[in-house]
Amino acid sequence: MAEHWIAFHRPGDGDLTGYLDPVDDSAFVPLNLIGHPLGEAGTRTEAESVLADRGLTSLANYWWARAPRPMPQSGLDLRAPEDDWEWRRFVIVDLDKSTCTVRLALPEPEEEEATAEVSLPADDVLRIGPPHRD
Hints:
With 134 residues, the chain is mainly beta. The chain is built from one helix and seven strands; from the N terminus they run E-E-E-H-E-E-E-E.
């Protein structure tokens, strides 16, 4: 994650639920564990409240990224999409401090075991909603 981000651990259980991205000395943007903003900049208390409430649950969303059809079983670099790749829906299946592993939410039979890893932060690769059509 970015060096200037501040890790936020949920009070009570100490789970890492996201990061505070300082805009200035008094405003912070709450980011989930893949670096996706969960709201507008606010006070530190406001941003921490968002992360305590939604930091981990936000990861259960569907995520959109461009990928080939069919998707290979492994070794796919979602950061380098080719022109013929389609927007496809993914779910997060694993997460550590440096990578996020995703699989297709609606795979074809030959894609059921296919996964891809994305280095973190991944907010530039994984989108929260379906892309706009041109």
